[in-house]
Amino acid sequence: MFTGIVQGIATVVAIDEKENFRTHVVELPDAMLPGLEEGASVAHNGCCLTVTGIDANRVSFDLMKETLRITNLGDITPGSLVNVERAAKFSDEIGGHLMSGHIMTTAEVAKIITSENNRQIWFKIQDASLMKYILHKGYIGIDGISLTVGEVTATRFCVHLIPETLQRTTLGTRKLGQRVNIEIDPQTQAIVDTVERVLATRDATAASLSQALAEKQG
């Protein structure tokens, strides 16, 4: 599990391409290295990856075909920057919201509005069916960052970013058309799915009663 509080920005220094498989190497910030071991989990742009090799501050991770397909990690090249966060411990402060590191889809940067102390970024989500889980003032994970949803339309949503977030994460460098990873808040998803099931059951029951009544009267 992760908290959505990015601990640093890492540079991808090498990529080893294989068929339907990739190993990439990043230079982790020194503060993230103590206690790091092979098999540990580190989120890259919100996607949970497993450490497969450590050479000083150069740390290797393997990415499967599905990861490359669903996330924006398939877009990166040597020199790219990624948001990184180590897996949370039980004693850690949850400054954001609990995140699993399982990316559900990506979204395209559709509009950027910049003011003196704020930046508003609008996103168009790739899988429109997930918009029902994106609610005004709800939580969402964007490239591993725990954020609060601002305005929402039928196909788009926005977030408001303070200077601290822009400085400490890669969102400050995102441009129009670029893709970001999206993790839907699991609690919001569970609530929406539960309500839908309850309403569907209620409608089915009502339809059955109406049919039975009609047959009886007929």
From TrEMBL:
It comes from the Bacteria. It is an enzyme of class 2 (transferase). It catalyses: 2 6,7-dimethyl-8-(1-D-ribityl)lumazine + H(+) = 5-amino-6-(D-ribitylamino)uracil + riboflavin. Residues 1-97, 98-195 form the Lumazine-binding domain. Its EC number is 2.5.1.9. Lumazine-binding repeats lie at residues 1-97, 98-195. GO terms for molecular function: riboflavin synthase activity. Pfam families: Lum_binding. Keywords: Repeat, Riboflavin biosynthesis, Transferase. GO terms for cellular component: cytosol. Pathway: Cofactor biosynthesis; riboflavin biosynthesis; riboflavin from 2-hydroxy-3-oxobutyl phosphate and 5-amino-6-(D-ribitylamino)uracil: step 2/2. GO terms for biological process: riboflavin biosynthetic process. Catalyzes the dismutation of two molecules of 6,7-dimethyl-8-ribityllumazine, resulting in the formation of riboflavin and 5-amino-6-(D-ribitylamino)uracil. NCBIfam families: PRK09289.1, PRK13020.1, ribE. This is Riboflavin synthase. It comes from Mangrovibacter phragmitis.
